[in-house]
Design a protein that fits this description.
The complex is a heterodimer. Chain A is an alpha+beta fold. Chain A has a single domain, classed as Alpha-Beta Plaits (2-Layer Sandwich). Chain A is built from 2 helices and 4 strands, in the order βαββαβ. In chain A, strands 1-4 form a two-stranded antiparallel sheet. In chain A, strands 2-3 form a two-stranded antiparallel ribbon. In chain A, β2 and β3 form a beta hairpin. The model of chain A has no long low-confidence stretch (mean pLDDT 96). In chain B, α12 packs antiparallel against α13. Chain B is globular. Chain B starts with 8 loop residues before the first helix and ends with a strand. Classes of the chains: A alpha+beta, B alpha+beta. At the A-B interface, α1 and α2 of A face α17 of B.
């Protein structure tokens, strides 16, 4: 599983990196960025899903990596 | 000023009507069921959408709706408003494509890193005002605490003398509250504010320092410094948007806790709950509504919108939409899924949201650490600020 932020949708609401600081960080404008390549482990998946459910701009998706 | 009281908010809404100011939520719930877009002929004509979906749609549609005037005023005179796409207080009054340029300039100052660095300062500011309340058994938490936090933070950020903060509240009142005056009476009132900012700018030009004002004076777009109007407009925005808003949010949180001892006890006993609780305070008591103007005549969900009609973007109403939030009308302090729109949606998301959130969290933490048990003092009335930024001003408390 892999998490992705759509940079065109992200407005820097800041929810993702406060909910899941091990999965998301921020750039110098305060927009959310995925840390590393976004691959989720069984531990990080739950928090990434919670961040996704809290993003007001619907900018986060979790993809099945094949 | 005698304004006709509103009888039906569906056809004649007014966000300064005492009924709306005192308790808008039943009105919005009713409109959402019945309309869901309410209309008024007041203020020269305007619309108030009440569903999350419509609020989001308009906030994200900069093609049909302009931000050049985001505060509703009685005498709407497009000729006298600074023109799009820059507007009078960039970037909040700016439209694309200029908006992105103006916004990029200010976002780094409000990013999580710089905001984190201010946390100690905010905590010290809270402690100073709480120290003054030591031993008090009843006091007004609005007048003695909530109203001091954001002006203290913003004046330091802009590099203004802290002792001027009473003036700052006057400026905010001028921009946000005196909306019923005729334009010709309103415009001269802005002169002292403009003069104040120009003096501060001159002082910063003569004595540059490490603050947001000096940053704005020195920053460049494509090798060009900002125009004086842009610098001043962004400073006014920082002051006006940074004070009333967070003051209202802090006040609402204290007002809520005064009436919900179970929530107060949980926050006192479970400090880790605070970040989640802060989001629910923001959802449930979102203080800010913002205006747009319709660019050209158009149809919106069956309504005929005319050019220059107002749109009042009710983010607080969107936050109570039961189609988006489970038990939308209930404050749930540990609500895990909370996609609220308190800071707006789309390109105009509040640039200061990280700062506001930190101020709100720290102010509540410090307040409840000093006063772990308090209730409303029923002998005195709670009063609310009217208009587009709504929050309690007098919050009479009894310490238990």
């Amino acid at each position: 599983m892999k998490v992705v932020i759509d940079a065109d949708l992200c407005q820097g609401q800041g929810r993702c990196f406060s909910i899941a600081p091990n999965v998301f960080g921020f750039d110098d404008l305060g927009n959310g960025v995925v840390l590393g390549d976004g691959t989720l482990t069984s531990e990080t998946l739950k928090l990434a899903q919670l961040a996704m459910a809290n993003c007001p701009e619907h900018a986060i998706t979790i993809e099945d990596a094949e | 000023m005698g304004k006709e009281p509103v009888v039906d908010f569906a056809t004649d809404w007014d966000h300064t009507d005492p009924q709306w100011v005192n308790d808008p939520y039943p009105i919005w719930d009713d409109l959402r069921e019945r309309c869901p877009v309410a209309h008024t002929e007041r203020y020269g004509g305007g619309w108030f959408p009440t569903t999350h979906e419509m609020v989001s749609e308009i906030a994200n549609d900069t093609e049909h709706f302009t931000s050049r005037q985001v505060v509703i005023v009685h005498n709407k005179n497009p000729e006298l408003m600074p023109p799009a796409p820059i507007g009078g207080a960039p970037p909040i009054t700016s439209d694309p494509p200029f908006h992105a340029i103006a916004r990029r300039l200010i976002l780094p100052a409000f990013a999580p890193g710089p905001v984190r660095a201010l946390e100690g300062q905010v905590r010290a500011l809270c402690a100073k005002h709480l120290d003054a309340l030591a031993g008090a058994t009843s006091f007004d938490a609005g007048a003695r605490f909530a109203r001091y936090i954001s002006p203290g933070v913003i004046s330091r950020m802009l590099g203004f003398p802290e002792e001027d903060e009473d003036q700052f509240r006057d400026f905010v009142h001028l921009v946000l509250d005196l909306i019923d005056l005729p334009t010709e009476e309103r415009i001269p009132l802005f002169a002292p504010m403009t003069d104040y900012f120009d003096q501060q700018i001159a002082d910063h030009v003569a004595h540059p320092r490490d603050d947001f004002t000096s940053y704005l004076l020195n920053v460049e777009i494509n090798g060009q410094k900002l125009t004086p109007e842009h610098v001043r407009g962004t400073m006014v925005l920082t002051l006006v948007a940074g004070i009333d808003t967070t003051w209202s949010a802090i006040g609402s949180a204290i007002w809520h806790l005064a009436q919900h001892p179970e929530d107060l006890a949980r926050l006192v006993n479970e400090p880790d709950l605070m970040p989640i609780a802060v989001e629910e305070f923001l959802r449930f008591y979102a203080p800010v509504t913002m205006a747009r103007l319709v660019k050209e005549d158009m149809t919106f969900h069956g309504h005929d919108l005319r050019a220059n009609d107002w749109i009042l973007l009710g983010f607080p109403a969107a936050n109570r939409d039961p189609s988006v939030f489970e038990h939308a009308d209930r404050f749930i302090i540990d609500r895990a899924v909370n996609r609220h729109a308190a800071f707006g949606l789309g390109i105009h998301r509040c640039a200061g949201s990280n700062l506001a959130r930190m101020e709100l969290r720290v102010a509540i933490e410090e307040f409840i650490a000093r006063f772990p048990r308090f209730t409303l003092d029923e002998r005195e009335p709670v009063t609310w600020a009217p208009g587009q930024v709504r929050g309690p001003r007098a919050i009479p408390l009894r310490v238990r």
